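Task: sequence design from structure.
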């Protein structure tokens, strides 16, 4: 799903109406209906709802939502931050529809309250609206640019002081839709950049057609962000940002049922090279995760003394013994021809549990250098650390190379500090992917998948319970397993692996809780993650805020 700027969203709306003949008022009606639908489905206990509307199109969406909620039987109190005579276009039309609907009801309902200046928002004037069970923020949309006028600023302050659950229409009012930094809160934290204007602190956001950068990176809410299809055709959604949000719809072709005459040779052979004394489980988890992700075969090559532990992890795993150092780590191989044969026609995953032994690091560098043209390798963990100070040796030209660093490993590869990386994660990942002609999976909240052409996929799944040892090893195996099945679609296969990894973590969290989640739970719940992704047909996509 494309991520678009505020200006691109305006152009999408224009094209939808002018080229594809979907009227702007239809878009507004659909947007308001989506907001009402969310309130009715997710906040069933809210009987009285306050809707605060600006005079622009965001307010128009709010008028429609209010009308739909009234028709659903709710008590709705609407506050218009403008003289009604200042309303224009579609907003004026749907405002009149709201007023007419209220007047048509036999039982008494209040007409919209009007606030023309900040003093009109004193508690004695607007107490009924701000005392509702739930507030809908329909003041400003994603086209807003500072500064706020005093009336809107006062209304945002009243909403934030109300302590009520708040659903924002399109975006939290006052936020910069194009910002890639957290901007909601009272004080800056660390490297976060806050908005200069007050911003509504929302508990949920319902936006439309496509996300803007702030929906992904702006810290707008800790609750759900709903992206609703309101009628713009896919051909109208054009963006130059090069940012894709991973959704099940993006991976439909990779999730199709297998052919009835399939055999294991159709789905690739993953070779995991890793493990060391005391870290056998990392390689074993990666190898089994590749199988759970659908690979036809999985072999784990590991130090000879470690092999029995790996072999006992799961009977489906095949194993190969490698020469080892006195410390129980992988050494340079004595039989070069046999090792070269082991690498042939396999998707390599190297690094889980491999250690930072200097001899082993030399082995890692030599192994990647000897890979054949058109080969595929996933590099993780201490295999990445083997390139500290030698990042120029990591290059995907003529082959598919995927690296999966966490911020510490990325710091060692780039020479940047972790705070520098975290402050500008997207551009750091994008720059490294372009310069080294490879795919970067920069792990963390909203894991990023950056590609050589500059496109960055943003992953919405996952949770803090996955901050436990071994989850990265599982991801390495899953990436290798899916790329082995779809070698011609390595970018999409990698993004799908990251999405399913996080989704399996979300399902595991719901079963065992965040605190008790362990890495093997992701493997256990991966089949459910596949099933959920395949069955996702909704016209709305939800991601969790941050």
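Answer:
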């Amino acid at each position: 799903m494309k991520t678009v700027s505020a200006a691109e969203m305006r152009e999408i709306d224009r094209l939808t109406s002018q080229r594809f003949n979907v009227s702007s008022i239809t878009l507004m009606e659909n947007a308001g209906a989506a907001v009402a639908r969310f309130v009715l489905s997710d906040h069933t206990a809210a009987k009285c709802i306050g809707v605060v509307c600006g005079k622009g199109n965001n307010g128009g969406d709010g008028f429609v939502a209010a009308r739909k909620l009234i028709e659903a039987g709710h008590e709705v109190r609407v506050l218009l931050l403008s003289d009604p005579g200042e309303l224009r276009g579609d907003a004026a039309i749907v405002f009149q529809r709201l007023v007419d609907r209220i007047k048509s009801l036999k039982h008494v309902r209040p007409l919209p309250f009007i606030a023309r200046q900040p003093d009109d928002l004193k508690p004695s004037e607007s107490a009924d609206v701000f005392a509702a069970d739930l507030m809908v923020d329909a003041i400003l949309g994603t086209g807003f640019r500072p500064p706020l006028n005093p009336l809107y600023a006062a209304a945002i302050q009243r909403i934030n002081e109300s302590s009520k659950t708040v659903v924002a229409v399109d975006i939290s009012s006052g936020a910069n839709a194009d910002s890639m930094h957290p901007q909601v809160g009272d004080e800056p934290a660390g490297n976060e950049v806050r908005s200069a204007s007050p911003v509504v602190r929302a508990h949920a956001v319902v936006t439309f057609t496509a996300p803007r950068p702030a929906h992904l990176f702006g810290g707008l809410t800790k609750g759900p962000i709903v992206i609703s299809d309101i009628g713009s055709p896919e051909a109208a959604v054009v963006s130059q940002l090069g940012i894709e949000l991973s959704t099940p719809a993006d991976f439909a072709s990779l999730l199709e049922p297998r052919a009835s005459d399939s055999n294991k040779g159709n789905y690739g052979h993953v070779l995991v090279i890793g493990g060391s004394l005391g870290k056998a489980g990392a390689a074993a988890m990666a190898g089994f995760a590749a199988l759970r992700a659908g690979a036809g075969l999985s072999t784990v090559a590991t130090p000879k003394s470690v092999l029995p532990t790996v072999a006992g992890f799961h009977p489906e795993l095949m194993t190969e013994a490698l020469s080892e150092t006195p410390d129980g780590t992988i050494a340079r191989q004595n039989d070069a021809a046999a090792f070269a044969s082991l690498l042939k026609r396999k998707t390599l995953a190297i690094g889980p549990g491999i250690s930072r032994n200097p001899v082993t690091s030399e082995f890692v560098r030599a192994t990647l250098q000897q890979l054949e043209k058109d080969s595929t390798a996933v590099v993780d963990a201490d295999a990445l650390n083997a390139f500290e100070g030698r990042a120029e040796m990591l290059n995907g030209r003529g082959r598919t190379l995927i690296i999966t660093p966490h911020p510490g490993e990325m710091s060692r590869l780039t020479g940047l500090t972790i705070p520098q990386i975290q402050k500008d994660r997207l551009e750091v990942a994008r720059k490294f992917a372009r310069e080294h002609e490879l795919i970067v999976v920069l792990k963390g909240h909203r894991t990023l998948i950056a590609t050589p052409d500059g496109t960055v996929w943003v992953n919405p799944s996952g949770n803090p319970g996955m901050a436990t040892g071994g989850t990265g090893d599982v991801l390495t195996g899953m990436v290798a397993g899916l790329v082995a099945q779809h070698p011609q679609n390595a970018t999409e296969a990698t993004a799908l692996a990251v999405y399913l990894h996080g989704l399996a973590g979300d399902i595991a969290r719901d079963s065992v809780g965040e605190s008790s989640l362990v890495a093997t739970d992701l493997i256990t719940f991966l089949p459910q993650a596949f099933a959920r992704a395949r069955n996702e047909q909704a016209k709305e996509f939800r991601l969790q805020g941050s």
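The chain has two domains: 6-241, 267-535.
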